[in-house]
């Protein structure tokens, strides 16, 4: 995801190119919140990591630099939460809804979530400046 933002200006990262209003920066923000929800809150059991709504609206006043740094920090925290688990088949500390998924399920879920949004980012990046590929 971060690679898809390389070399773009703040305006380009916030540019709305599709009817849904999705932006590259909004995708990164959404994945930051999802990392915190699934790994910080559900896996590690940190109440403070429950972001509530996991939307794509970048908060007013948050620069692109801050959003990208927050994403990197969320990934590092997620990695630490995974390393702290002895058994990936163990249930998460805090369920979402009525289901207490396994840590392995959360890893698979976040992998698919990230990959799906990386595809969206590919399309947006191509619309912004024609960059395609890896």
Tally of individual helices: 4
CATH class: Mainly Alpha
The CATH level-2 architecture is identified as Up-down Bundle
Shape: elongated
Radius of gyration: 16 Å
Bin the helical content: 40-55%
Q: Name the helix and strand elements from N-terminus to C-terminus, one letter apiece.
A: HHHH
Number of domains: 1
Largest sheet: none
CATH superfamily, by name, is: dinb family like domain
Tell me what the structure shows.
Helix 2 (24-43) runs antiparallel to helix 4. The chain has a single domain, classed as Four Helix Bundle (Hemerythrin (Met), subunit A). It is elongated, with a radius of gyration of 16 Å. The chain is 54% helix and 0% strand. The chain starts with 9 loop residues before the first helix and ends in a 5-residue tail after the last helix. The chain contains 4 helices and no strands. By secondary structure, it is an all-alpha fold.
Secondary structure topology:
Blueprint lengths: L9 H5 L9 H20 L20 H20 L19 H27 L5
How would you summarize this macromolecular structure in one to three sentences?
This protein has 134 residues and is mostly helical. The protein has helices spanning 10-14, 24-43, 64-83, 103-129.
Describe this protein with a few key phrases.
mainly alpha, Four Helix Bundle (Hemerythrin (Met), subunit A), 54% helix, 134 residues, elongated, 0% strand, single chain
């Amino acid at each position: 995801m971060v690679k898809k933002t390389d070399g773009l200006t703040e305006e380009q990262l916030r540019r709305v190119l599709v009817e849904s209003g999705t932006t590259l920066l909004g995708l990164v923000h959404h994945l930051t919140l999802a990392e915190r929800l699934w790994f910080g809150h559900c896996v590690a059991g940190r109440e403070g990591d429950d972001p509530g709504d996991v939307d794509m609206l970048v908060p007013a006043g948050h620069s692109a630099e801050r959003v990208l740094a927050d994403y990197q920090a969320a990934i590092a925290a997620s990695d630490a939460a995974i390393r702290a688990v002895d058994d990936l088949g163990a249930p998460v500390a805090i369920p979402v809804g009525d289901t207490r998924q396994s840590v392995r399920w959360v890893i698979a879920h976040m992998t698919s979530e990230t990959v799906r949004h990386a595809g969206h980012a590919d399309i947006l990046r191509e619309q912004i400046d024609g960059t395609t590929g890896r």
